[in-house]
Amino acid sequence: MKIAMMARNADLYSHRRLKEAAEERGFEMEIINTLRCYMNIASRRPEIYYNGAKLTGFDAVIPRIGASITFYGLAVLRQFEMMGVYPLNESVAIGRSRDKLRSMQLLARDGIGLPVTTFAHDPKMTAEVLETAGGAPVVIKLLEGTQGIGVVLADTERSAKSVIEAFRGANVNILVQEFIKEAGGTDIRALVVGGKVIAAMKRTGAEGEFRSNLHRGGSAAAIKISPEERSTAIRAAKSMGLNVCGVDMLRSNHGPVVMEVNSSPGLEGVEKATGKDAAGKIIDFLAANYAVGKTKTKGRG
């Protein structure tokens, strides 16, 4: 099997581990800088060029698309799909998960536990939005944010109104969510591969930080999740149509609630916290499921 990995930085831990795991199993992997690709969108002859040469002979593609290049990354991935190359995660599924509003709507449709989440266009509706979310404190999120960037905790009604009105005044789209105080600044990242949770860790925010992202100084430890949490993670991945993803959940008083479904989860934290060979599990799934032309879109919506 010959694998293309779409990634801008070949030296990242996750990308090195996936390449090592593939080569240990006798597969060939080429890491391709997504932004250096260009496409020939010709009738019945879709082609991708990289550094001046046409890409050919790939059986599967692993998309590791950074949030800042989602639009172009998905365009390149769709071109691979048009060429019959099997994607670890499909372009449509990644697009669903990257749109915070759409992903919340799909998860809600499928009955998956969520924090109360509100969305409005008119800043004059701020009071109604806060009331629907249960009042302060609330978490305010930019729709385009990632790795904890663009996430604000507003402790009071006054500060929440100020932040919401400032964002909407700048024509920035946001979600307003209830603050799950009982989570205590910790969340759960469940790594789902092929409809199974293969590893789970508890992430705890740095001192005085309500966000638990490891990129923001959080720490990670292995955790045993409940059957309900396991089921929630698997259903969330299915709702997005993702073969591989990280599902971020909080433990609330009314059960697990999903905060985000990440289509390009980092592997360093979960592998070091749990000792599990996550990269190997991902490559094993790819080897067992890839087939030329097997690019049918999964999931609804």
TrEMBL record:
Keywords: ATP-binding, Ligase, Magnesium, Manganese, Metal-binding, Nucleotide-binding, Protein biosynthesis
Residues that, per the record, bind ATP: K141, E178, F179, D187, R211, S212, N213
Domain annotation ATP-grasp: ranges: 104-287
Organism: Roseibium denhamense
EC id: 6.3.2.-
The protein, known as: Probable alpha-L-glutamate ligase
Gene: rimK
InterPro entries documented for this protein: ATP-grasp, ATP-grasp_RimK-type, ATP_grasp_subdomain_1, RimK, Rimk_N, Rp_bS6_RimK/Lys_biosynth_LsyX
Cofactor(s) required, per the database record: Mn(2+); Mg(2+)
PROSITE patterns linked: ATP_GRASP
NCBIfam families, A to Z: PRK10446.1, rimK_fam
Binding site for Mn(2+) 1: D248, E260
List of residues binding Mg(2+) 2: E260, N262
